[in-house]
Amino acid sequence: MKADLTKYENNKIKNIYNIKNHENYSYKTIGLTEDVIKDISKKKNESSWVLELRLMALKKFYELQMPTWGPDLSELDMSQIATYVKPKTNMQRTWDDVPDEIKSTFDALGIPEAEKTSLAGVGAQYDSEIVYHSIKDELVKQGVIYTDFDEAVKKYPDLVKQYFMKCVPVTDHKFVALHYAVWSGGSFVYVPKGVNVDIPLQSYFRLNAPGAGQFEHTLIIVDEGASLQFIEGCSAPKYNEINLHAGCVELFVKENAFLRYSTIENWSKNMMNLNTKRVIVSENGKIEWVTGSFGSKISMLYPMSVLNGKNAKCEFTGISFAGRGQNLDTGLKIVHNAQNTSSVVDSKSISKDGGVCTFRSNVLIKPKAKHSKLTVDCESLMLDSESRSDTIPTNTIETDDVQYSHEAKIGKISDEAIFYLMSRGISEAEAKAMIVRGFANPISKALPLEYAVEMNNLINIELEGSIG
Amino acid sequence: MKEYILNSSPVRTSENYGINDIKLNLDIPQYKYFDNFSIYTEELNKIEVDIIESDVGQLKKLRSNIGLEFENYSKIVIRIPENSTIEKPIVLDYLFDEDNNNLIDNIEIYLEKNSKASFILHYCNELENENFHHLKQVTVLGENAIADITIANLINNNSKSFIAVENELKDGAFLTHRLIEIGGEYKISNYYSKMLGDNSTNELKSIYLGTDNDIIDINYNIEVLGKNAKCNIESQGALTGCSSKSFKGTIDFKKGASKAEGIENENCMILSNKAKSKSLPMLLCHEEDVNGEHGISSGKLDENMIFYIMTKGISYDDAKRLIVKANFNGIIKSINNIELENEIYSVIEKYI
């Protein structure tokens, strides 16, 4: 009975992520040409400098090569992707003003409820535009800016110009160039000097339109001595055609500042998730990445931390779970570029039902990063022999005064552990699920309670079978 | 001079990381007959040895996993018959000199079922002339055969050394390989094992030493196909001067290799702030019921340990040498040949 109930609950959660609304947009562009870019820019009523950057990025996109490594991206045909889908609503400040169909999707995902109980601000993006944004008044009074990125470009052009494209350059790789050509939506956060935002802000990205791309831009500046916890969630219903996510996250953690950036990603299994995230950390600053990758058909995601200031720190805690038909190529990049910088990486992956998990990392310790320390720990769990799990870590050390260690393990669930739990009256399936949840526990612990529950739900769904 | 792209890793990663391959500009010298070599064994009657010196057209082109190929080379085939045990090591000794400064050799070692033998392939020179050496060493072990092979590259640092090893192991076979990579301004090595047999074991122990502007590129790849197979890669290295090293080590568990185990460890001692170390230790897994681990550690020598040794009246430089030698000691001692062990220690002392 208990098993049936769990199955019922898991199906309920699956259905929530898989809610498909009628495609109801006010404007849509397909493909990637100069005219399409001009069209998007005109529709957004942008300044000429923004359009110029978009056109320059488009040129770069066509110049840069496709990656010669990683998962096969040949199914992606940019001429068929809807590069901009404007929903039939403008950005609203109250949920009551959001159209019912869209609001009910976010209701089912629990966003308005979480806003009431545990968030200091929420941004909700639907297809290409933010449809809802809010921030608590007390934060506004302290000078915190949390708004959608389109609005930030118009309202704070000088601040945006100072940081936009400075962390992730347009030449970084082909899909960043694509992003800069067609970006739309996303979030902008500025936390002034010395302000601590104790309650998290959350942006949720929902892609509803079939065959569409989502290209949101997130830019966060945590100024000197300030702190912020930011949560990013994403999901989409499953369609037969390829959807594309090529967002970009640029983060700046200034001197003595702190940022925790948490992501629970549950894209549908027709999604190519080619996202780029990067942070530049100044002296005594600290970045904490907490990341759970569950969905998508293909993911190529390697959050990068550039430790530019003395004593800057990075902590990365991540988990990937690849089920049937999924190829999740995830990991991280870290550059130690100053004295006494340190990093701790704890990465886990689970492969099941033919899923492919690849942990890929690149660590670079530059000559001036004397007295730096770095520990990388990655562990992979294979739940059957149809699946695949690869660990591909690269490290480059250009100074002698460094302590670097990397450890990786691949294996199955221990038969002894299953036997022990079964001897306590627990079924084999539940025993395996308990062990997998225990395996993921370090990541759950790093998440706020509601999101830890969501992550456990996603693990339960994956263990039961594939979503969608 | 021609640019070559060599020693490609079995799985590609971003070109930006600069570790997938190594690009070298090489002037590969013309083939020359190399006559300064000898084979020692006390049990010649128990083994079969063929020495084939190639002339054009007599042998197939020699191709190695490094990516180089040669029309002409010398080939030695050693076969240990079924159920034979050779107690003392079979030693192949190559001494480079002014006339013998270009060696392209292909050594194939076959151990038939239940046979056992050990081998030392020793490359050295007394002069400081420039040498070129490319070795392709092939090992095929039959069922339950046991082989212990040490390849000691102790040629001078004006030389270029390329060592490619290819192995095939059948059921119950046990192969221990030692690669001592000390000589040569270029030290390019490739090691590929196909562990076909159930219960087979492959141990690879290697030492590398980079000095001055040495370029070291290491590419090890062990494919585990047999059930209950075990492999172990242990690599100890030290870098001084402006030397640079790329270490690519792969353990690839193929589907069906149930209960297999694989461990890979690399420890790189960085003794200079101008030396550069790159590593790519890969674990590839297509089988659930395996145990795979890898560990990498890099960094400078432990200052506390150096200080402790210095309190015993030993100078800083000697303390450093002592620690490096101690890290190499486990692998060198396992050769079990005092003469060669001492020679390796003295070459290491010369460079550090």
What shape does the CA trace of chain A take? globular
**Global morphology of chain B:** globular
Tell me the domain tally of chain B.
1
Oligomer: heterodimer
Number of structurally distinct domains of chain A: 1
Please count the helical segments of chain A: 13
**Strand proportion of chain B:** over 45%
Overview of this structure, please?
The complex is a heterodimer of chains A (468) and B (352). Chain A is α/β, with parallel strands linked by helices and 468 residues long. In chain A, the strands form 3 sheets. In chain A, strands 5, 6, 8, 9, 11, 12, 14, 15, 17, 18, 20, 22 and 24 form a 13-stranded mixed β-sheet that branches. Chain A has one domain. In chain A, β3 (121-126) and β4 (129-135) form a beta hairpin. Chain A is built from 13 helices and 25 strands. Chain A starts with a helix and ends with a helix. Chain B is mainly beta and 352 residues long. Chain B has one domain (33-301). In chain B, the strands form 4 sheets. In chain B, strands 3-8-10-12-14-16-18-20-22 form a 9-stranded mixed β-sheet, covered by helices on one side. Chain B has a 9-stranded mixed β-sheet with strand order 4-7-9-11-13-15-17-19-21, with no helix packed on it. Chain B has a two-stranded antiparallel sheet with strand order 1-2. The longest helix of chain B has 18 residues, at 316-333. Chain B is globular. Chain A binds chain B through residues 67-70, 360, 362, 367, 380, 382-385, 387-412, and chain B through 11-20, 253, 255, 258, 268, 270-273, 275-300.
Summarize the helices and strands and which ones pair or pack.
The complex is a heterodimer of chains A (468) and B (352).
Chain A lengths: L1 H16 L7 E6 L3 H10 L4 H16 L18 E6 L12 H10 L1 H8 L2 E6 L2 E7 L1 H5 L3 E4 H7 L1 H7 L10 H9 L4 E5 L4 E11 L6 E2 L2 E6 L4 E9 L7 E3 L2 E6 L4 E9 L4 E3 L2 E6 L4 E8 L4 E4 L2 E4 L5 E10 L4 E10 L5 E10 L4 E10 L6 E11 L5 E10 L4 E10 L3 H8 L5 H12 L1 H6 L2 H16 L4
Parallel strand pairs in A: 3-7, 6-9, 7-10, 8-11, 9-12, 10-13, 11-14, 12-15, 13-16, 14-17, 15-18, 16-19, 17-20, 18-20, 19-21, 20-22, 21-23, 22-24, 23-25
Antiparallel strand pairs in A: 1-2, 3-4, 5-6
Chain B lengths: L1 E5 L15 E5 L10 E4 L7 E6 L8 E2 L5 E2 L3 E7 L9 E7 L5 E10 L4 E10 L6 E10 L4 E9 L5 E10 L4 E8 L4 E10 L5 E10 L4 E10 L5 E10 L4 E10 L6 E11 L5 E10 L4 E10 L3 H8 L5 H18 L4 H14 L1
Parallel strand pairs in B: 7-9, 8-10, 9-11, 10-12, 11-13, 12-14, 13-15, 14-16, 15-17, 16-18, 17-19, 18-20, 19-21, 20-22
Antiparallel strand pairs in B: 1-2, 3-8, 4-7, 5-6
